Amino acid sequence: MTRPNPADPLPLTSIACSIPPFQITVMMRARFLAPATALCGLLLALATPAAAQQRPYLIWLDAGKIDVAKVMGLPPAQNSPEHRAEFEKVLAISSARTPEREKQAIADQYQTLNAFLNGIDHAYVEGTHRETRLLMREAQVELAILLKSVNRLTSRIRPFQMWNKVRVKPCPGGRPEGTSFPSGHAATAALYATLLSEAVPELADKFEERVKSYGESRLVCGFHYPTDLEAGDKIGRVVAKALLAEKAFRVRFDETRIETRQAFGLK
């Protein structure tokens, strides 16, 4: 870490927020205290990374009722026969990818409803049906918060990061960081498929086919192992079912059901 230069001016947040209250009282009249306090709060908010300003708590679910770690289980131990077998499988899949499959896998790196639906034949119109998109986004955020609580429990190295005689070549573009287990993409796909199938059962088979291809893209790019996908799929479905069983969420879900069906050209 670079040490600050004593000659450099202090950051504005440090100046505004490090002065003890009794000194502020001596330095300023009472009528200026409120603006100073407000300025301090504003500067701290602006200095806080955007990721830290996102909601860190659950709105719909009770985290205590979902044992995420138990649902997912644990990945094979590093360098175990199971782990080596998984690595060889990912190596074979990623090495055999065609330019067309790689292009689709790169597109599948986006964890959005539209990215998920783009892999199947449907009548959904992108950028419309606001309430459906908002509800799906809320569900995805709820899932992400639960996954965040267990990500620190594992530190599985991703396939393309493994040192081996033959290396897995990742897809071009952004490379994911952090633990490989579980797959957030697989969890998101399972979440979408479960919720959408509840509203549009006529397309349930297509949604499930898309879950498989969406997850396979993570193997094609060398970003995940099969057991990462399995664990993500399990927790995605558990969270979706828990949301549907939650009364407040179910009310919102039922309110958007008509819109969701219309989004796919159905009555």
Number of domains: 2
Count of β-strands = 0
Return the CATH class of the largest domain. Answer: Mainly Alpha
By CATH, the topology of the largest domain is Vanadium-containing Chloroperoxidase, domain 1
The Rg value, from CA coordinates, equals: 23 Å
Tell me roughly what share of residues is in helical segments.
55-70%
Which structural category fits the helices and strands? mainly alpha
> Order of helices and strands, N to C?
HHHHHHHHHHHHH
What's the number of helices?
Answer: 13
Distance between the amino and carboxyl termini: 59 Å
Shape verdict: globular
Low-confidence residue ranges: 1-53
Main beta sheet strand tally, sense and closure: none
The CATH architecture term of the largest domain is Up-down Bundle
Q: How would you name the CATH homologous superfamily of the largest domain?
A: Phosphatidic acid phosphatase type 2/haloperoxidase
Kindly report the average pLDDT value: 79
- Indicate the proportion of strand residues: under 5%
Can you describe this structure in just a few lines?
59% of the residues lie in helices and 0% in strands.
